[in-house]
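Morning!

As promised:
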Amino acid sequence: MEILDVKANLIQDNDQEAACLRRSLEKSRTFLVNLMGSPGAGKTSVLTETIRLLKERYSIGVMEADVDSDVDARAMERLGVRTIQLHTGGSCHMDARMTGDGLAALNPEDLDIVFLENVGNLVCPAEFDVGQALRVMILSVPEGDDKPLKYPLMFSVSDCLLVNKTDTSEIFDFDLDRCTANVRRLNAEMPVFPVAAVDGRGIPEWTEWLADRVEDWKKKMEVADHGSDD
Amino acid sequence: MEILDVKANLIQDNDQEAACLRRSLEKSRTFLVNLMGSPGAGKTSVLTETIRLLKERYSIGVMEADVDSDVDARAMERLGVRTIQLHTGGSCHMDARMTGDGLAALNPEDLDIVFLENVGNLVCPAEFDVGQALRVMILSVPEGDDKPLKYPLMFSVSDCLLVNKTDTSEIFDFDLDRCTANVRRLNAEMPVFPVAAVDGRGIPEWTEWLADRVEDWKKKMEVADHGSDD
C-alpha cells in the first residue's frame, strides 16, 4: 500500500481544478464519492460494510485522507480493494489538487467507484469541491441531534446523510425525527439513512440508493457523450 | 446574552497577538482555559459539570465559539455565569485576535477563570495559541482509542486530556490503557482523566486538578510581580 504526502492547494482556483478532475472522472466513468464526517463518526466502518455489499458488482478504489497514520487504509486493504493512504501534511481537509494527486497515484481508469474518506472534520471539508459525483456525510448518534444547527454548511452541501451508531440511540437520547427536522431546514430534499455499521442495519438500503445514483450517473454520461457526438 | 461575530486573523502574527493577550490576562489574574475537542465530544456538558463544582469558589466566564447557533451559550447562561457566544464566520478554529475580540466583549477583569469552548475540531484549533494559560482537550469514548494516532498535534500540545462518556466504554470497545499508551508516545507527562458528564464520574478529580493549576498560576504571577518590582 502506498502512502502519499499531498500538498494543499494554495492558489485560489480550487473550483477550476475540481471541474477538471470531474471531467476526467466522467471520461473514465469513475464515480467519486466524497465521504465526510467528524473524527470517530464511523466513516471507515460504514465504508467497510458498504464495500462488502458492492464489491462483487463494481470495481472499487479507496483513498484514505488523514493528517497522520495509516490505520484506516490498512483496514481497507484487508477488504481486497485498491487503496491509497493520503497524508494531508497538517491540512484539515482535502482540496481538488490533493484529490487529483491521490487519483493519479490510484490509477482509477478501470474503477467504477472511488471513495475518498475525507479528514475527520465537520467544518472545512464542506467548503472544498474535490470533483466528486456525490457528497455523503456521516453523523453519529453520540455526537448529538443538534449538530445541523452548529455545522450548517456540511449539512447544506451534502447529497445524503447517514446517521450511524443508531444502535446507541437510547443511551444518548438522540431523536432521529428532531435531527431530520433540523437537517430539512438546511437541505429539504436530502435523503437520511439511519445505519449502524456494528450490526449492519440500514446498510443495504443506503447501498442500494448509492448503486442507483451510480447507474443514473452512468446513463447521464452516455447521453452526454451521444450529445457531443452530434 | 450577546452574540459576537469574530473575524479570523489574516495576518501572520498570531503568536504575537497571543502573547499580548496572555500578558493582559496575567495582569487581571484571569486564567484562560482553551477547551478543544471533536464535535459532540461533550465539551459543553463537561464544562457544565465543571462549572457547577467551581462556581462558588471562583468567578467564572464562558466564551462559546461556534460556526453558527447559540445552543451552547444558552446552556451556560442557565448556570448563571457570564457568557458570550462567538460566531467564527465559517472559520474552523479560534485564533488570538478572535479570542481578544471575545474577551473585550466579556469584560473579564473581575473573572478568575474564563473557559473558551473552541470550535468542535480535532485539527486546526491545535495550531493556534489563543493566549490561554491551559489547553484542555476532550476525547469521547465513541470516537475510538485510535484518535491520538490520527490527530497527533492536538494530543501533543494539550496540557490535559479528559476522556468523556466512559460510561459507554463497554459498548464501544474503547480501551483506556491503549488510548493512554497512544497518548503517552506524543505527550509523556499529560494527565488523563476518565470522566462521564452524564453521571458526573471523574469530574471532581479533574476539577480539583484544574483548581490546583489555577492556584499555582496565581502564585507564579505574584512572584513575577514581586520580581518586576525589584
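The radius of gyration of chain B is 17 Å.

Hope this helps with the figure draft.
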